[in-house]
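Quick one: structure for this chain?
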Amino acid sequence: MYRARLMHRLVLFDIDATLLLTSGAGMRAMKKASLELFGDRFSWDVLDTSGGLDPQLFREAARQSAFAASRAEELAFRDRYEEHLDRELAPGKDVVEAMPGVHGILETLKAREDIVLGILTGNYPRAAALKLRAIDIDITWFPVRVFGDDGLNRSELGAVALRRYTEMHGRPIEPSRVLIVGDTPKDVECGLSNGFQVLAVGTGKYPLGELLASGAHRVTPDLSDPTPLLEMLGD
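Got it. Here's what it folds into:
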């Protein structure tokens, strides 16, 4: 008997300030790494990290520090940063806080055959895994994974997510069947520029009104009430 193929929805989650907060552990690790490698001439002052990509943040810090970093130096920074981040997030330090409702909504979505989970984050790959591990989330729960070194800006990451879904399932997914969940206008811009639905959460530094004005289809204070997300999935 012919069985219709299951029509998936792809749900892409940002990490920082959407799924969790690290109490500044990421920036502390970045500063330690650059100090060890490049000295105190390397400055992270006045750098807006919200919604940024880790490689992009490094290049901007290098630019404002008048430091011409080579590709080898950039990769050395990434590796040293991840070493320091691992120490910052060591068990028992309790610096990472899961945002309200995160574990519950992930368990709900994981149990559904029509949902494919994904991560779309500005973090380096290992940094993303370390942060999620700190709140007992396994990055393998997210078959579609897109990281900060997959594009030059966050909007480019959306196309990568579509491509990775297609490679995994052997057929494309309509952009309108993709929902991105994030906490910054850059998350919203990424979603809109790729034709995705956008749910913005107020767990970062941006108020709900600003997120709505940036174009989010729907906003919610946090994920403690799963209703907005589930309604956007058609439930």
